[in-house]
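This part of the workshop introduces the protein records we will be handling. As an example, a complete record with its sequence and its C-alpha cells follows.
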Amino acid sequence: MRRSLVWLLSLAVIIVLLVSGALYWMKRPTQLTSNRKDPVVNAKWDYEFGRPVQNGEMTYADYRARQMKIGAKEGLSPEAVGDGMDTWHWWVGVDNPGFWQDVAALTSSAHNFTNLRLDLLRILELVPRNQRFKTLGLINDPDAVAATKPDQFGLNIDRMKDGSLSWNPDVFGFSSGVIGLQLFKNEKFDPAKWDAKKYLAGTEPYMEPPYKVGMACIFCHISFDPQHPPKDPEEPTWANLTSSMGNNYLREGMAFGLAQKDDSMVYHYLDTQEPGTSETSRFPYDFINNPTNINSILRLRDRLKVAHVENITPAQADLIRSMYKHVGLKDDNFTGALGGTPEHPTLKVPHILTDGADSMGVLMASVRVYVNEGMQHQSWYDSLPIDIFNLRRSVLNGFTPKEFDLIGKERKDPNSPWMQTELRMPNMATFLMSYDSFPLKDAEGGKAFLSEDQILLTEGKRVFADNCASCHSSKSPNPMPTDPAAAKKAWRELVASPDFLKDNYLSDDARHSALELGTNIQRASGTNAMAGWTWGQMSSQTYKDERAPIVEFTDIDPKTGAKRPLYNPLTGKYDIHFKGHAAFYRTPTLVSVWATAPFFHNNSLGKFTNDPSVKGRIEAFDDAAEKLLWPEKRLGVKSIKVASQKTSLPAIFAGMKPSLKEDFNDMDLKILEFPAGTPVNLLMSFNPKYLPDVLGAYVKGVLAGEPRQKFSSLVDRRREAGIEAVKTKLLELNTCPDFIEDRGHYYGANLSDKEKRALIAYMKWM
C-alpha cells in the first residue's frame, strides 16, 4: 500500500517548470561576453513551415532588433543583448528535451496510475491555439500559425511562418507555437511503429514521437506588455509582448493535468495551484507544496547596489573562481564579488529566489535555472529523495536526498550541458540588463487610472516613507540619522525628492524572518538549499546558518497583532504548535507593481482576473492593494486549498504491500476516499517515508480498540472513522502545516482609510 502514496507524490512532483528566479547581471556600460562554440544539438531534418511572413508583420528578428537598440541606449553591447536574448528565448540547456521525453514515457507507461500524462507534445497538439491562453495561460508565438492540415507525421502542431526563422535551429530548435517550448528531432523515432491517433489517444503503450520538446526560460517569463496589451490574447504580436515581466497568467498545474479526473487528489493538487506561480521545488523535492510567483526582472542594475555579503566555504570559493575563469569574469566582478580570506571567503550577491536561497552569485543562480528545467537530468535523478524511475531505491534510502555534486562531478566534463550553458550566461545577463520598468503613465489609457491630486500624492509619499520605504527602497538616507525622529524626517525628505523612484529597485533585497512578516511559510520552509539537499552546494554558508535555528512558527492576529498558533483546518482553531528551521523571505520589488497583482510569494492576495488589459491589471491591483491594507477583506480561512469534491488516491497499492513490515494486505484502496473540503496540503506536504504510520492510523481508526483480526469485518461500516484517523495522522506528520495562504504582512493595517487610499494612489506611480 505504500506505493500508492509514493506514486501520488512522485508523479505529482515531476511536473517541473523553470525556477522563477531572475538572472541579474548589471553594470553600465560593461559588456559581459565569453568565447564559445555553440554545439550542434539537432540534426538537420525537414521542417514544414506555414504561410509566409506578410508585409508589415513584426517578427522575432524585429523584436530582437528593438531590444538591441534599447540596450545600446543604456550603454550595453547590442550584439551581446541580441545573443543573450536568443539564449533567454530558445536555449534548452542542450539536453532538457531528453528529460521531458523521460517524463512523457514514464507517465504513459503501465506504471502510471494517476491519469497524469506529462507530455509537452500532447499539450501542443490537444489544446487548440485559440484556447491556450484562456484555458492554460500559455502565450502563443506570433511567428507561428495554427496548422491547416496534419504534417507528415499526422500531427497538427503549429507551424512557424516561412521567413520568420532567424536563429540556428541546430542549436535552438524550431518554435512549437508556444513561446518557450522548442521542437527538436527525436532520434529514437521509428516511423514503422508510429501511429499519431493512438499516440494522442493515450491508449497504447508509449511510442516515441517524431519530435522532442525542450523548455527555455522564456516559457515562464514571457508575458504581455502591460503598457501595450494585445486585443486578442490568443494572437498577440511581438509589439504586445515583453520578456521580463513573468507570465502571471500561466496555469502551470492544469497545463500538466489535462487528462486528470477530478475525483483524484492529484487533480485538486494541480487545480488549486495559483495562476502565475511555478512549483520549482517539484524537482528537487522538499515534500512541501510551495509554488511561488514568477518574478518580474526589472531595474537590475539598481538591484546589485544593495547586494549583500554572504559567507561561503573555501570549496565554494574555488568553485566560483573556476566558474568565473571559465566565462571570463574577474573575481571582484559586480555579479558576485569574491572577498574575505582563503580560510573565510565571502561573496557579495543579490538574493535572487523568493526565500533568498540563491545566495552564491548571479552566474551560479543562472545556470541552476536550467537544471531545474531538466538539464543534466541523468545526473540529478540520483540526488532526488524520490527517484521517479527507481522507487525501490528511494524506499531503501529512506527518501533521503543527496547534493547535486557540482564541485566534485558535474563541472568536470568541459563539454557537459552545464559547461556549455555556463558560457552563455554573460550575454544573457547583458540582455536582461536592458529592462527598466513599465510606468502606468505610459500605458495605453493608463493615465485614466492615475491620480494627479498632488495633495493626495504628497500624503501617499509620507505614508510610504513612514511605513514602507525602509524595506521597499534600494535608496536610503545617507548618512542615516541615529535618532528615530531625525531618521523619519530623513526618509520623508528622500521619498519626497523628485528622483526618488528613478533608478530605485524599490526593495532592500534582504532576507526577513517569516515570523516577523507573518506570511505563509511554505515557500520559506523549503529545504532544497540546505546542507545535504539537492542545491546544498549552491547556497551560502550564511543562508544555511540563518536557517539552522529551530523556531516555533506562529500566526499573527490582524486585529490585535498578537501571536497565536497556526490554524488547524481539522478543528477550526488556532492550535497547531509547529516547530521547524527558521524561514525567510527576501523583499519583493514594487517596480511596476500596478501590473503584477495578485500579491505575495504565492499570488494568493487578490483576485485573479485573467485579463491582461490595463483595466484588467488595475482591477487586480486595486483588489490586492485593498486586501493588503484592509486585512478583514481577505479570504483568510477560505484561502486554504481544499478538494472541491470527494477524492481518492491512485489505484496502485498492491505493488508496495510486500515491502512493508506491517501486514496491510487486507486493505483495499477504495476505502481511502477523502470527503470534499479535505485540505490538499494534508497529502501534498507529506514525506512518504511515514506512509506505514498513516496506514497504521487507518487500521487503528477502524478498529477503535478491537483486535486486529476484526479489521476486514469492521472496515465497511467504519471507513469514515478510519479516514478521520488518517487525516489526524497526516496533520501530525505534515512537513509544513501552514494552511492559510493569504495571511500576514499587516504593515499599514492600522493606518486611517485616508492614508491607505493615498498610499495606493502613490503606488500606481511606481
About this structure: The first strand starts at residue 144 and ends at 145.
